[in-house]
Design goal:
With 208 residues, this protein is α/β, with parallel strands linked by helices. The protein has a single domain, classed as P-loop containing nucleotide triphosphate hydrolases (Rossmann fold, 3-Layer(aba) Sandwich), CATH 3.40.50.300. Strands 1-2-3-4-10-9-5-8-7-6 form a ten-stranded mixed beta sheet, with helices on one face. α2 packs across α3. The longest helix has 13 residues. The radius of gyration is 17 Å and the shape is globular. The N terminus is likely disordered.
């Protein structure tokens, strides 16, 4: 199995623990343990291949369902005050990831429309409020401040598509989720990294 890559050719070494497979999907699946050049990979077919380096986590996603499962796995790690920056080209699955994450946090299958035109959508989770921003149409960071994003990031959970539009207003403590096209039509890769205590929290996602 090819090791997961985050837009480059670097190969990563991954601890070979079956528990990581269980933690990401909620189900027990056979782990594949195949040596590759430069190290070893933990993964399974056809859902995800996992790799880690320097506190970042890269996941190879076979299809949209795998993207949704990764979002569901991330949900228990989120806390009041967290900001999640969703990066990637058009069509890489940012809104689909946010939709699955919101449904996991709220515990419902409610409709989760794209905020591309409304710019922000708000949802009530049991422990906090969720605000989902799409900043694609903004011309300057100050436009986001007028939307109330600065206050939104002070509490609850804030999901931001096209966070580049925020410029210096994006907090360094945020979790960065970068989605990218892969080698197959339905495949994607997701690279997760963040400031603050996110390196430690991502270890929980990786190792279960």
């Amino acid at each position: 199995m090819p090791i997961a890559r985050g837009g480059g050719s670097d190969q990563y070494n991954v601890p070979m623990q079956v528990a990581a497979v269980r933690s990401l999907t909620g189900e027990t699946l056979p782990a594949l343990r195949e040596p590759v050049a430069g190290g070893a990979v933990l993964g399974y077919k056809p859902q995800m291949a996992i790799a880690a380096k320097s506190g970042a986590l890269t996941v190879a996603l076979a299809d949209p369902d795998a993207t949704a499962r990764l979002a569901v796995a991330l949900a228990p790690l989120l806390r009041d005050g967290d900001v999640v920056a969703l990066r990637g080209e058009l069509g890489t699955g940012k809104t689909a990831f946010a939709r699955a994450l919101i449904r996991a946090l709220t515990g419902s299958d409610e409709e989760v429309p794209s905020p591309a035109f409304t710019l922000v959508q708000t949802y009530a989770a049991p422990a906090f409020e969720i605000r989902h921003f799409d900043l694609y149409r903004l011309e300057k960071p100050e436009d986001a401040i007028e939307l109330g994003i600065e206050d939104a990031m002070a509490d609850g959970v804030t999901l931001i598509e096209w966070p580049e539009r925020l410029g210096p207003w994006l907090p360094a403590r945020c979790l960065d989720v970068r989605l990218a096209y892969a080698d197959t039509e339905t495949g994607r890769s997701a690279t997760l990294s963040g400031g603050g205590d996110w390196p430690e929290r991502l270890r929980d996602l990786d190792h279960g």
